[in-house]
Request: fold
Amino acid sequence: MTRKLKVPAMAVALVAQMAFVGLAARPALASVGPADDRQMTTPTSWSTYTGVTATQVNSYLSANSARITSLQVESSTPTFTVVMVRNTGSYSSAWWWYYGKTEGEVNSLLSSHGARPISMQAYSTSSGVRYAVVMVPNTGSSAKASWWYHGSASFISSQLSTHNARLIELSPHPGGGYVGIMVQNTGTNATSWWWYYGISSSSVNSTLSTHHARLIDLSRNSNGSYNVVMYSSSGTRWYWYYGQSPSGALEKANQLGERIIDATSYVVGGLKREAVVMLRNTNSRSEALRNIIAPKVDSGAYGFYLKQVGGSTLASLQSTRQYEPASALKILYHAKSIHEESLGSALDKDIITYHYDPAHPNDGDICPDDFANTTTTNLKNGDQQMMWNSDNRMTRGILEKYTKNAVLNYGTSLGLTSTAINHNIGCPTSATHNKTTLVDLGNVYQAFQTGVVTSSSPWQSEFRSRMLNQNNYTGFKDSICPIVNQEATALGKSAATATSFCNAMTWIAKGGSYQYGESLPYKVSWDGLSLTGVPYKSSAVIAPRYFVFGEFVDGTTINSQSEADGVNTARGKLYTEGMRPYIHAALITW
Reply:
């Protein structure tokens, strides 16, 4: 493949200086290997940190079972901005990182390890220029002929030409010029690529568009211009942003289903900012679901979660992000109550006290904290009204029966790690939102299905019957049976088979809905969690497989009824399209 080197006319003038060769490595054996994480698109766990010391970096590396893939020195202390990936699977590689090293020491370490650098930063200290470097073994699938240099842009360019190489990273050198890491760009390693230095953000975008490329590396100069390395894009979804706060950059990446592959921090007006490059980090199922909801939600946050009970997570976006669940949190109160009743520690006939509006005594949508009037009912009725009608009056009564601490402790026993009860459901304020995650609420449904909430068959039946289920909520079959019919037709199954299949499906669910304000525009917190039994067959006998599904939009501004309808239609489609492949697979067994 033809090597493409570009040095733009608008590049800033640089001080020419002598450049020094780092280390030439053995011949390349393969193209993209475990250490070439910025070219890899397999979803993985990743993290990024800024303003951290070496001790903190090592602590995060240990906690995350990770390795560094992008390293920037922020100060001579030194402190760092780092990007890391979990060091497992297709990203697994031996590796080393060092800082405070002279040029000679870097070369010695590369030689002793038989390694090549993948990220490097030069920085000033009282003792002179020092280097921080990340290196990987230059063997096996990671092997590439490799060099590193520092010098003027023209010198870097001449070395690229001499070695028929491409850059993998380019960063400013404190003495002028740049530090460049390059690998041979021939054979299976070859790719079309371009590099630019000292250009504006608008020029970055223009050149990316011209070359149909994506960024591999990004660094920022003290005058606010950028240095970039870009490779021909295969169509993989990616983004780059600048002027972001560190937390904002991380939040944006998580919402987009991306992983940050390169981060550069800098200070503007006394505030830390980051320029980041992101790459898609979703599997095909997650990507398909993301494409349903993303175009409909233009503010706040959204996410989804699909997991087979006893199996793996099948699709996920922001499934561990805390959000306001509204009434969906009532599933935890329900589980606690059924658990206690199954143990005999509580009885259906137990009395609970609830608050009500004397002007509208049957209104369950009220904030029960707003009314001092109380009356009583029995526990079974309270639980049913809480789960069938989402009655906030009964919800407070049940919480007070068991106490908030007891309910939260029970949640912890079910595997909930990120749930907080900060207000009685129905009574949110801007300072007292409840918090949970899709994974946390999903754990309640999974704990029920696996017999952790109760192993008693009668009480398992009570758990289901006191919730919205496939028998008492017609909306379930109205939404899922058309999907069954479509997949049955595609497989050549009869209409009778499709009907029998749909009738054999089971479902329980609890949703939540807060609207903050009476008139448009207003903000909302909407979500829904469910447990679906899909009737697979084994030896002609139904052997259901169970799936937890959840979705949320939170803090989203709704400007019109049509926007609200669009968001809710997308939310419903998330569930049906999420379940479609498993319905298809189960129908094959019929």
Residues 1-30 have pLDDT under 50 and may be disordered. The chain is about 30% helix and 30% strand. Residues 561-588 form the longest helix (28 residues).
